Amino acid sequence: MLLDLRLAFRSIRKSPGFTAAVVLALALGIGANTAVFSVVDAVLIRPLPYADAGRLVMVWEDASLVGFPSNTPAPANWVDWRKQNTVFTDIAATRGASYNISGDGPPEQVFARRVTGNFWTVLGAKPILGRVFTEQEDAQHAAVVVISYGLWQRRFGGERGVTGRKILLNDEPYTIVGVMPREFYFLPTRIMDVWTPISFRPEDLANRGAHFLHCVARLKPGVTFEQAQAEMQAIARRIGEQNPNMKDIGAVVVPLRDQLTGNTRLGLLVLLSGAGCVLLIACANVANLLLARGATRRREMAVRAALGAGRGRLVRQLVTESLVLSILGAVAGLGVAQIAMGFLGTLVPPTMIAAPFSLDLRILAFTAAIAILAGLLFGVAPAFSAARVSIHDALQTGGRGSTGTGRPWFRDSLVVAETALALMLLAGAGLMIQTLARLQKVDLGIRTERVLTMLTFPARYPQHAQREAFYTAVLEKVHAIPGVAGAGYTSSLPLTERGNTSGYILHGQSEKDTRTQDALFRVVTKDYFQAMGVRLREGRLFSGADRANTEPVAIVNETFAGRHFAGRSALDARFQMGRWGPKYPWYKIVGVVREVRERGITIDLKPAVYLVHPQAEQAWPIPNALAVRATVAPAAVAGPVREAIWSVDKDQPISRLRTMDEIVGVDLALPRQNSALLGTFSALALMLACLGIYGVLSYAVVQRTSEIGVRMALGATPASILSMVARRGLALAATGLAIGIVASLATGRLIATLLYGVQPNDPATLVAVSLLLLVIALLACLVPARRASRVDPLVALRQQ
Questions:
Q1: Is residue 188 reached through a cis peptide bond, with omega within 30 degrees of 0 on the bond before it?
Q2: Tens digit of pLDDT for each residue in 717-726?
Q3: How many helices (H) and strands (E) does the chain have?
Q4: What average pLDDT does this structure show over 355-382?
Q5: Per-residue pLDDT tens for 582-627?
Q6: 69/165 same-domain check
Q7: Binning pLDDT at 50, 70 and 90, where does residue 406 land?
Q8: How far apart are CA 708 and CA 712, in angstroms?
Q9: Which of 226, 261, 296 corresponds to the end of one domain?
Q10: How does DSSP assign 710-725, residue by residue?
Q11: Are residues 682 and 533 part of one domain?
Q12: 72 to each of 93, 252, 358, 452, 592, how far by Cα in Å?
């Protein structure tokens, strides 16, 4: 083996150009696979930070009737699920929260979860410091809190004596009882710093109308997902029989990892497949290079054989050379992967902690494995071909050994495979690029340019009148800032919240009519629509005249108006929202606005209702997001806006400063990343495939120099020789295109859920990428073909 390695390195040093070409091709293929695998490993393979995480599931209500196939459950349903099921060890419930930390350092707003006391045992999660709170503390409404590793480090400097310390959350004292590990996270986002008891009241546990929980459960040993789904669906039917309002509400059980990864799983698998295609094309190219090099080493192999080397010994030596080349390519590929890892971290879904990507043992083992596999893949066939040598023919100095024997079917098949794989990648990239282009053209219903947003949750103002005074004072000061064109508060910024909906009843409707009526519910201040650039279709926007002591009014979107008032005006119609009856207000519709993509760019539109804050005392969404439209760069007004808020309340936390363009960018992140990466892989595949065609034709011209000389001596013209060579290259490309089109049609359906506004078998895309590949293939044919057409017959025939 040591002798084989010495001979391999000697051979590689003698051909630096050949070595550089092989190492570069392999570095691109192996580096791409290593980088993408690092994300796949972090998201889809590594264990979740819970005990026996494969037994954990999320349980949702199936409210498909109103557009939510996986809806947040109501507390009373969670109680019944927990009592009646026999498939789970337990079911825990959580809900979102937001706390302002103050009194100990600068004010800070943190995202939080309020959780039931069994949350920790269901997940099997343990703190690294202190303890978690118990079910008894939850039932007793204990003011205890578990904090994240991140909050412990940045606010308390990692002080180990932090447990037992008091902290002010929304001006209420809480005792820190524990600190969770760095890697701990849970839905709906990785940005979570505080966990407190949910502490349900008796009336909460009887509530079936408010849907706001996230329920996680642990399967009992031996119970399958299918069994759990069947039982939960049966329980949901029983609940519906006993409660008419829940008649059409089912239950859905989803494995926790599937819930966390969402659409990212398919996107990552597509990218890994794309990187695999690049590696296969690189291997095909290297195999062709080795075949060509093998032909030039026929005399060397014959001498070795004449000196006693058997065929197996020759094959072993050549395969060793291939493996050494592959390992060199892998080492270079690690550098490529390291560069790409920084960008690929953005592929981790927001529900999971982005683990720091590094070349750990798992990644190095994967790289070593694909290096060895690649070395065998591209090295074995050329090795057997080169070792199959005739000593007599090869050692004849004047013989025709250089012309080769037999049909070059293997090299041709490699080029066909390269072309087919390249077309598949180009087709996938074309579909993703079209998807991104269509998404970028979707009318969001707002003007996103120069809009600054921030969260200022008014937890310090529990009374409606206090909040109204706070909003009024802040907006008055913000409007006075030079460079500010408008400002307003909302309970949910566009593109950031898929839920926050409520039922409603129109004047004259019966209770039965409300079963399928569900609308997005937003509470805003009067100037919010102007600040966001929302367009009015009919009626008017809110004004200063819409006060607490005037008639309650509302603005609805076009979907709401079209559903109930098709062909007529929605103005002056009245409805009740959330709860209805004599003691609840009737809202009069005074305006209809164009559609705003409240839930996301790709998510179906829903009816939406907007209430103005002075008249929304009974509404549960509290405006906490400030939108500021500037006439200058948003960054230029960020500081003055903060100072304006703190001049009203010096302890008011401000968080999540983002422009609306950044928020749109987050919504487009996955398709943009998929397009960029598949586009990069496609460009590499196109380059390698064309080099493959060029290499095969160049080698064929060299091998057939004598034949071409004879043809020209017999009267063939340079044009006919050029046509002969080009036809062969184009025939290989055309065969690869045909196979690639069929494969693209078969695989296109697999990425259908990643597409928007384009069909997976889009003929325009297939035609465009086929023509592109054909043109590039033609260009790759021209150089060898021109070289062949310029062969001097006298020089060629002297080789005989």
A1: yes
A2: 888 888 888 8
A3: 25, 22
A4: 81
A5: 888 999 999 999 999 999 998 889 999 999 999 988 767 889 999 9
A6: yes
A7: very low
A8: 6
A9: 261
A10: HHHHTT--HHHHHHHH
A11: no
A12: 10, 11, 37, 30, 29
Q: What is the mean pLDDT of residues 193-200?
A: 95
Which residues have a Cβ under 8 Å from the Cβ of 478 and sit 6 or more positions away?
484, 487, 626, 628, 641, 644, 645
How far is residue 138 CA from its own chain's centroid? 36
Give the whole-angstrom CA distance, residue 170 versus residue 165.
16
Q: What is the DSSP letter of 51?
A: T
Name the one residue in this structure whose structure tokens are 């496609």. 682
- Work out the burial of residue 354: count CB atoms within 10 Å of its CB; fewer than 13 is exposed, 13-18 middle, 19 or more buried: middle
Contact 78/154 with Cβ under 8 angstroms? no
Single-letter residue type at 555 = I
AA identity, residue 485 = A
Task: Look over the chain and give the mean of its residue pLDDT values, rounded to a whole number.
Answer: 87
> Which tens digits make up the pLDDT trace of 44-87?
888 888 999 999 999 999 988 888 888 999 999 999 999 999 99
Number of domains making up the chain: 3
* Residue appearing with tokens 């003007």: 447
Among 349-363, 409-423, 646-660, the range of highest mean pLDDT: 646-660
Cα–Cα distance, 329 to 27 (Å, whole number): 5
Asked whether residue 105 falls in the same domain as residue 245, the answer is yes
Give pLDDT, residue 403.
45
- DSSP one-letter string for 746-765: HHHGGGGGG-SSS-TT-HHH
- Binned at pLDDT 50, 70 and 90, residue 405 comes out as very low
Under 8 Å between Cβ of 58 and 73: no
Q: How far apart are CA 131 and CA 136, in angstroms?
A: 14
Q: What would the pLDDT profile of 377-386 be if each residue is shown by its tens digit?
A: 877 877 777 6
Nearest-5° Cα angle at 61, 59 to 65: 150
Bridge partners, 556 (sequence order): 592, 609
Domain interval for residue 731: 401-440+667-800
Q: Which of 261, 282, 315 is the last residue of a domain?
A: 261
Please answer whether residues 147 and 169 qualify as being in contact, where contact means their C-beta atoms are separated by less than 8 angstroms. no
Query: Residue 396 above 80 pLDDT?
Result: no
pLDDT tens for 6-55 read: 888 888 888 888 888 888 888 988 988 998 888 888 888 888 889 999 99
Residues 633 and 715 both lie in one domain: no
Q: Which residue has the higher pLDDT, 613 or 376?
A: 613
The CA distance from 128 to 321, in Å, is: 51
* In-domain check, residue 389: no
Measured distance CA(722)–CA(785) in Å, rounded: 5
pLDDT digits (tens, 9 = 90+) for 488-530: 999 999 999 888 888 899 998 888 878 888 899 999 999 999 9
d(CA 129, CA 181): 8
Residue 597 lies in a domain: yes
The alpha helices in 100-185, defined as continuous H runs, are 119-123, 135-139, 149-156
Question: Which tokens is 585 given?
Answer: 């207000």
Classify residue 26: in a domain, yes or no: no
Strands 518-524 and 108-115: unpaired
- Do both 729 and 644 map to the same domain? no
Please name the residue ranges forming H helices in 201-359.
202-205, 225-242, 256-261, 264-296, 298-306, 311-344
What's phi and psi for 409, nearest 5 deg?
-65, -35
- The verdict on residue 254 lying in a domain is yes
Are 217 and 178 found together in one domain? yes
Do 243 and 124 share a structural domain?
yes
Mean pLDDT of 156-170: 91
Q: How far apart are CA 568 and CA 557, in angstroms?
A: 14
Gyration radius from the chain CA atoms? 34
- Together in a domain, 643 and 710: no
Residue 135 DSSP class? H
What does the block give as tokens for 217? 């459960």
Give CA–CA dist 632/279, Å, rounded: 48
**Whole-angstrom distance, CA of residue 743 vs CA of residue 741:** 5
